[in-house]
């Protein structure tokens, strides 16, 4: 396993999960991910990317929600778990992500090449 994959796994295990408002995808939009995360997603055509971007949407948001939920990028996992990325529907985990982990994640995002989904 590469160093980045190890870090991604480390962060995933430390970002708290919580239950969303049913059927809600309000926080989905154009997001970025590392090439290691991207490699786990099914390939989308250029057209699918263009259509999604034109609607300020994510190409992996389908009729039944996120099509890559189990492999969704770190930034999607972080959303709602910190006061800096609050859920507009007031959903949150019982315990928010630790400040230390949040900073480490942002350092990781800034230090890796991020690709638009
Ligand atoms: S975090 Fe909030 S805005 Fe995002 S999908 Fe869940 S309920 Fe909706
Ligand atoms: S990857 Fe999934 S959770 Fe993240 S923005 Fe796209 S549809 Fe939403």
Note the topology:
Blueprint: H1 3-14, E1 32-34, H2 35-38, H3 46-54, E2 61-62, E3 65-66, H4 74-78, H5 99-111, E4 114-116
Antiparallel strand pairs: 1-4, 2-3
Bound molecules: iron/sulfur cluster (2 copies).
One iron/sulfur cluster is lined by residues 20-21, 24-27, 79-80, 87-89, 91.
Give a verbal description of the structure.
The chain contains five helices and four strands. The protein has 117 residues and is mainly α. The protein has one domain. It has a two-stranded antiparallel sheet. The protein has a two-stranded antiparallel sheet with strand order 2-3. Strand 2 (61-62) and strand 3 form a beta hairpin. It is globular, with a radius of gyration of 14 Å. The model has no long low-confidence stretch (mean pLDDT 96). Residues 20-21, 24-27, 79-80, 87-89, 91 line the site of one iron/sulfur cluster.
């Amino acid at each position: 396993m590469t160093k980045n994959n190890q870090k991604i796994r480390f962060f995933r295990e430390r970002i708290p999960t919580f239950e969303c408002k049913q059927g809600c995808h309000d926080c989905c939009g154009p997001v970025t991910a590392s090439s290691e995360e991207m490699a786990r997603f099914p390939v989308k055509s250029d057209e699918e990317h263009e259509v999604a971007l034109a609607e300020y949407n994510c190409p992996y948001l389908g009729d039944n929600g996120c099509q890559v939920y189990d492999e969704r990028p770190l930034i999607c996992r972080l959303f709602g778990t910190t006061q800096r990325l609050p859920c507009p529907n007031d959903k949150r985990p019982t315990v928010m992500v630790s400040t230390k982990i949040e900073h480490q994640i942002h350092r990781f995002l800034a230090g890796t090449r991020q690709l638009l989904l």
